[in-house]
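Dissemination and training. As part of the outreach component of the grant, students in the summer workshop were shown how a complex can be specified as a set of sequence lines and then modelled as a single object. The example used during the hands-on session is reproduced here so that future cohorts can follow it. Participants entered these lines:
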Amino acid sequence: MSAPVSVFPRLEPRLPSVSKPIQYVGGELNSTVKDWDCAPEGETVRWALMYPDAYEVGLPNQGVQILYEVLNERDWIVAERTYSVWPDMEKVMRAGDEQGSIPQFTVDAHRPVRAFDVFGLSFSTELGYTNMLNALDLAGIPLHAADRTEDDPIVLAGGHAAFNPEPIADFLDAAVLGDGEEVVLAISEVVRDWKGEGRPGGRDELLRRLAVSGNIYVPRFYDVVYAEDGTIEAVVPNRPGIPFRVRKHTLMDLDAWPYPAKPLVPLAETVHERFSVEIFRGCTRGCRFCQAGMITRPVRERSIGTIADMVENGIRKSGFEEVGLLSLSSADHTEIGEVAKGLADRYEGTNVSLSLPSTRVDAFNITLANEFSRNGRRSGLTFAPEGGSERMRRVINKMVTEEDLIRTVATAYSHGWRQVKLYFMVGLPTETDEDVLQVAELAKKVIAKGREVSGRNDIRCTVSIGGFVPKPHTPFQWAAQLDHETTDERLKKLRDTVRDDKRFGRAIGFRYHDGKPGTIEGLLSRGDRRVGRIIEAVWRDGGRFDGWSEHFSYDRWVTAAEQALDGTGVDLAWYTTREREYDEVLPWDHLDSGLDKDWLWADWEDALAAADGADIEVEDCRWTPCYDCGVCPEMGTEIQIGPTGQTLLPLSVV
Amino acid sequence: MRDQPEQQAPPVQRLRIRYAKRGRLRFTSHRDFSRAFERAVFRARVPMAYSSGFNPHPRISYAGASPTGSASEAEYLEIGLAEVVDPAALHARLAEALPDGLDVLEVVESPGGSLADRLEASHWLLDVAAPVETAAAAVTAFLDAESVPVERMTKKGLRQFDCRAAVVALAAAPREGGTRLDLVLRHVEPAVRPDDVLSGLASVGGLVLDGAPLLTRLAQGPLDRATGEVGDPLRVSE
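and obtained this result:
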């Protein structure tokens, strides 16, 4: 196949008419453009990687950057990136020129997405589904996998949302669960061999080869049968050799995979203007609402030496002076104190600043925060008790006591911080108005304590609240989601309680969103294949960028759901506000995250017992004996943590 | 009480830099460029002088940046350094640290004074699709006019201003696929940009443009009032 022509000459004269044209031109520092036929011998395998949101959100995404780099390191693979285009650009592309419409393109070499072998999309959130449909349509790739031909790429989904890809099953050729680093290479090899053999058996055979590996889910090879009551009766393979369950991937030894090593540096402004190092993957704290913590087990740490090398390499190659140490709960790294002190020592007297997102209240250590603010910059402190009342925190297994929180913020305020941010969720299982109003009490106590220890009156506290959305592969996968009306009512009561308080009201900021987008996220999170019709209808009606409040339309989703589900016996409420039973076949049961379903159910029962006052706490298996969640034996993995006992030496001056 | 941040020492050396915005990176906005440049000086380990304050930032002053979407061979900025460096060595390091298309062309020591004050006029090439006869006629009409009022949407709303007085020279020559307009434009307040001149050509000369013209700034600097030529702002020739 000859190299496809770049669409850039067609785009260029139109770029001055669209907003922020720089996002479409590529050419970022550390980006890669390779020959279309780069393989020294044999077949070249070509990937178009998409983060299905705007460039400013998609470019910093670690997952896409890592895969882009891992793939391009192979001399026989080409990987390029593509992002969702804004509506003004979409209009320009659809209007096109004398050659017709301008197709969805990669920003690297501006090649049409349809010309690639694999079109891989990374879904951090379900609200990107309509953007996927739009990209497929702009690319000229048939929306439905069943309609695609050998001229179309394999459309592949990954990312956390891919742990239940059923709502987009009709649009996908395949989905991958878990860590992508190794499996993208395995997929590439299957594609290379198949192409090298002259594409025997066509597209179907390629997908069969991927599916029989047991690690790649090909929805078309599974039939879903529904029962009378609308629930799923069974999901079964429809041809021989296809595994009953598809397993997730787990990357072991993160030190062997120190990516991103060539961080992309955008010219356009993006949402994260920093270099991030993932200090560990996975979390076993056991917060029941947290899908990320459940599906990324076990914990695998990067060692202090690798972290430090990645920081130094990353800032030198990117020029970013801000470094984030990422993970699901960063203060839990076994050597976080040494990492913080070592890095702060190394970069003392420079403008390099370090930040630690995702800190638990109980793990917070004021030494850490002081190390990170040594150069005088004090970023805000954020804590996430998640539940307003002690009872709710027991239900979600996030055991932060009120005393813990007050003690922590007291230390922070007495060390010079003036503002803390607190994260909570509304709509958790068994929650009442009273639980939510406790958020106000907590915030007031935080301010009172802050005034007391600092002796000042300009103490502030910002309360941010998100609506809880039950997610697959968590103990709350059976829970009823709170309807958006009640969600909004509770938020209003809480807001009024805070506002009416004469002593503290003005010191407390209140940030929240209405509950409607959460309902749609809930539909897409726990939906089955019937939900695909809704997504398609919404997209056809103009739905795009559902993660952006200015583009999201709840009414459009409701109307589409009513029409698309007509005659199925199920509706929007059935997918969202309905509690599931033990026996129900869940749409994602054939997708194996390693978690034992009976353990999840027992944990759900524990949550309900805790709600009634039982004293049950699931501790972290890093420090206490294994509690049999099932992941390690099922996946053949193990916890990989320090301490290594190493300390960082000062860097020699170059 | 929070401690006052320490005062930073003043720069020991000031360097003036000429750079180009080429190819697809002409779509870099001024804000985009300044972020990219700050990262580049850090990557190149340029010993920048920093401003004082809670959020010290590197001492970089930009002058006369071209509009987003236009290419340029003549963009200028000045940096303040905490250590004396060899301009040629710094040139090489910066070139390495910036993406292709944002290209450093020249680095010289500042003789002092204001760089912005030395940028009095710009020399532009405007590639348009119109046939040269039409364009030449519009140019003649434009130059014959006493004043050419045009409108542009600015941050303060729709503004009307004259674009004729700022034009020092304007000529049309044929090029493949259309016309190349050669324009010398004085820097005035309110600013008159090359696309304002194109609007003027449309209004007085009936020059209708099909598609987006490619604008390229060739030079920016002191204006020789006798010859109408744009000089080099980095050469001291008072």
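The first strand of chain B starts at residue 13 and ends at 21. Students were then asked to discuss how this feature might be tested experimentally.
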